[in-house]
Amino acid sequence: xxxxxxxxxxxxxxxxxxxxxxxxxxxxxxxxxxxxxxxxxxxxxxxxxxxxxxxxxxxxxxxxxxxxxxxxxxxxxxxxxxxxxxxxxxxxxxxxxxxxxxxxxxxxxxxxxxxxxxxxxxxxxxxxxxxxxxxxxxxxxxxxxxxxxxxxxxxxxxxxxxxxxxxxxxxxxxxxxxxxxxxxxxxxxxxxxxxxxxxxxxxxxxxxxxxxxxxxxxxxxxxxxxxxxxxxxxxxxxxxxxxxxxxxxx
Length: 250
What we know:
The chain has helices spanning about 10-35, 70-90, 105-115, 150-155, 165-180, 195-200, 215-220, 225-250, and strands at about 50-55, 65, 70, 95, 120-125, 140, 185-190, 205-210. By secondary structure, the protein is of the alpha/beta class.
């Protein structure tokens, strides 16, 4: 897949750059390498392969928002499935909260992160602002605080086990990469203690991939090529976040 032809150089080289410029520099450098390199896909991980829980919002009797011929539960599953394929092509292990039209509670979704000792959790949704609204763009949410149960399940050895700080950085990275891939309006990152991210025992974000209540944005979201770009941006953000933390932990 096109994203994973962009492969980062060895972690040993990256560590050297990180030591010179600090973690912020290494994150930017990694991003530039992803964009600049066009190499055959290969494993990016020199230790344990990370695991990511990908959550398709809503499902079953909970259809989510409906507007302009789009049903949120269906489109969120479509985009989440594309994210899964992209991540697996990069050598990341993926657990989906649902792979079909089934309903899970928010607690059940978040609990999968603890059960599988996930390194990251990303929930995929579509946004609304009233039928006919001209609001457009992408925004990414993270929790300001994690529940006690989430902290108790946080794997002590996880390089991503940094709680709220990790989630805020995770949100910023994913937001930047999705907006870069799609050229969608950047509505920024927002701190909200939504249950599905606050209860996840790892850095967790909820991505609102666009407004289905916008006539123009809903048209774009109906296009497979555009959904590929959304998924590509999310996957790039996940990989970049995981790689940057693996560097800092080494």
